[in-house]
Amino acid sequence: MSNLSYIHEKDTAWLTFLEQIERVTPYLSDLKEHIDVLKRPKRTLIVDVPIVMDDGTIRHFEGYRVQHSLTRGPGKGGIRYHPDVNLNEVMALSAWMTIKTAVLNLPFGGAKGGIRVDPKTLSPRELERLTRRYTSEISYIIGPQKDIPAPDVGTNQNVMAWIMDTYSSGQGHTVTGVVTGKPVHLGGSLGRVKATGRGVFVTGLEAAQKLNLHIQNAKIAVQGFGNVGAEAARLFAESGAKVVCVQDHSATLYDSNGFDIPALQSYAEIHSGIAGFPQGKKISTDDFWQVEMDICIPAALEGQITLERAQNLQAKLILEGANGPTYPEADDILKSRGITVVPDVVCNAGGVTVSYFEWVQDMASYFWSEDEINQRLDKLMIQAINDVWTMAEQHQCTLRTAAYILACRRILTARKERGVFPG
Ligand code: GLU
After folding, report:
1. Average pLDDT for 60-78
2. CA 349 to ligand 1: nearest atom
3. Residue 325 has pLDDT above 80, yes or no
4. 9: pLDDT confidence band, cut at 50, 70 and 90?
5. Domains with residue ranges and CATH for the chain
């Protein structure tokens, strides 16, 4: 249970993170005494975001930016636009960023932002006004050396362009490095849009190889068919796997022969979802977790793999494209059933890794080719999954706990060396 006054029993995302921290603590020897620093965010900002709607009325939205840790460098993490966004969720997402950047050894802390809004209900002009006002409200705590936002669920490169423009207007000059995931003409990086999905694929291949799981004809189920899920599905299908089940907000589709992923992608783009795609049959939302599969890729939101679903899941390997999809009690069941989970903090770190490359390129005003980006990305992802795998073997623990050991050692060593001001 959290001892923060503003966290309640129903705030499961943050409580999941706290439980993950409890589980790593026994492995941290002397660094344990610094662990409490991770159990609360360093800085939490809640802002009111009023905007004038197209019909002239004024509406207020609730926005957040949480900097969980700045110990190893500037804050880093996306901005989520979703009707369910709340403080507890943004705190958990910011904390997972702290762990993620440390597992990849990127020189960042962890942060996250969000607005409680369904972006689909706003016109493009309203979305722009919302983004610009939110940016202005959080502008005091973001910056290329302070905290660097990026896209997340419900945001994209257009939103990043408005953030960059609004922040730059306040500074009197163009500051490309304040945000990543920008359009390439504005200091964005080639390969950034596909980076998270690519990272899921690269770490997944590596894990499958270690488990002797053949990708050729492997059955894959993907939850979420956005930026992450669709790209991971495409790369796996290209490598000979069969993507037999796909779920998004609009439908759950099943086809034992495997979907034509590029066709499904074009269809989903045009129709804002996969519902109505001519191939495969529609099954119920919950049946997604019961289908015959070798690899499961949750690539939507947190809190998906519950204890019950973990008991029935047929996969041998889970690749967490989403942040926080698995509850701690489900982790225990999966472990006892011999199902390997490549945790979010490694599996979906491809996005923030190319964000790091984007930030470096912006600083240097020198840009790399897409091949160079992909090669560097693959190298860092393969290194990270291997480091985590070795750690798990050494301690006979799950890959999640192993990733946390690696990350917490890095973060808490930095914390110990910095000391506590004023001492
Ligand atoms: N939102 C992505 C994540 O959860 C990317 C964050 C970033 O690029 O800073 O990792």
Report:
1. 98
2. 10
3. yes
4. confident
5. 41-174 (3.40.50.10860), 194-347 (3.40.50.720)
DSSP 8-state code for residue 274: S
User: 10-22 b/e with 16+ CB inside 10 Å = b?
Assistant: ebbbbbbbbebbe
Say if ligand 1 is within 6 A of residue 78 CB. yes
For ligand 1, is residue 351 a contact (CB within 6 Å)?
A: yes
Q: Which of 352, 353, 361, 377 to mutate to test the pocket of ligand 1 (most atoms within 8 A of CB)?
A: 352
**Dihedrals φ, ψ of 337, to 5°?**
-90, 5
Q: Catalytic annotation on 416? A: no
For residues 25-42, give the mean pLDDT: 98
Indicate if the pLDDT at residue 256 is higher than 90.
Answer: yes
Q: Whose CA is nearest to atom 10 of ligand 1?
A: 352
User: What number of CA atoms fall less than 13 Å from residue 362's CA on the CB side?
Assistant: 27
Identify the pLDDT of residue 110: 98
What are residue 257's phi and psi, to 5 degrees? -85, -10
The pLDDT of residue 289 is 98
d(CA 163, CA 159): 6
352 lines ligand 1 (CB under 6 A): yes
Ligand 1 pocket, residue 77 CB under 6 Å: yes
DSSP line for 35-98? GGGGGS-SEEEEEEEEEE-TTS-EEEEEEEEEEEE-TTSSEEEEEEEETT--HHHHHHHHHHHH
The three-state secondary structure class of 113 is strand
| Atom number, ligand 1, closest to the C-alpha of residue 149 | 9
Nearest ligand 1 atom, CA 93: 4
